[in-house]
Amino acid sequence: CSSDLYTVIGAFTMVFGLIGQFIRLKAYLSQILLATVCGIIIGPYVANIVDPAVWDPDMSVFLEFSRLTLVIQIMTSAIDLPTTYVLQKWQSLFVLLFPVLGASWMITAGLTYALLPLSFLEALLIGACLTSTDPVLSLSVIKGEFSEKHVPSHLRRIMTAESGINDGAAFPFVFLPLLLLTHSRHTHSFSTLRSEER
């Protein structure tokens, strides 16, 4: 099953790499949107060609492919920027990476807490995961003929730098609620065990 999964993902990546750019330039559709639609079609709810729960129960293959994709995109973003760009624009990046990222985290967590039946710590964790700008998703704004015509170059560069850096900058926002959740569960388990012993 694992080898079949590698084959399907490799074949999809090759075909999508050949036709994805053409579709995006002609139809002005994001490659991420196209990949998502293709995933839904070949997934268990439509064609049932790929069922992650059967082929990769612990999601290790998908996790490694996701990590590989993210690392390649972050490296590409770093290569695209001028050598001293981060040092020249450190003030703008600082504002985007801390006050703006923190405010976005709290707003997203607040909406999650208000709309879903979750604890506040769980809402903070989901907010941290959703807040940071994904360098893969931002490609539709940063790259391509449409963005080069309609999006100023200084905006594209600052978005490239911010999306590449904030994956690391968002780690404290993710690990703080995760640590508090883990600690509270361990504390609850320990207190339950102590009460049962008494």
Structural write-up:
This protein has helices spanning about 1-25, 30-40, 50-55, 60-80, 85-90, 90-115, 120-130, 140, 145-150, 155-170, 170-195. The chain is mainly alpha-helical. Helix 6 packs across helix 7 and helix 6 packs across helix 10 (about 155-170). The protein is about 80% helix and about 0% strand.
Distance between the termini: 50 Å
Poorly predicted runs of 5 or more residues: none
How much helicity do the residues have? Answer: over 70%
Report the structural category. mainly alpha
Shape: globular
Q: In sequence order, what are the helices and strands, one letter per element? A: HHHHHHHHHHH
**Distinct helical segment count:** 11
As an assembly, this protein is single chain
| Residue share in β-strands | under 5%
Number of beta-strand segments: 0
Mean pLDDT: 79
Radius of gyration: 21 Å
Please describe the biggest sheet, giving its number of strands, its sense, and whether it closes into a barrel. none
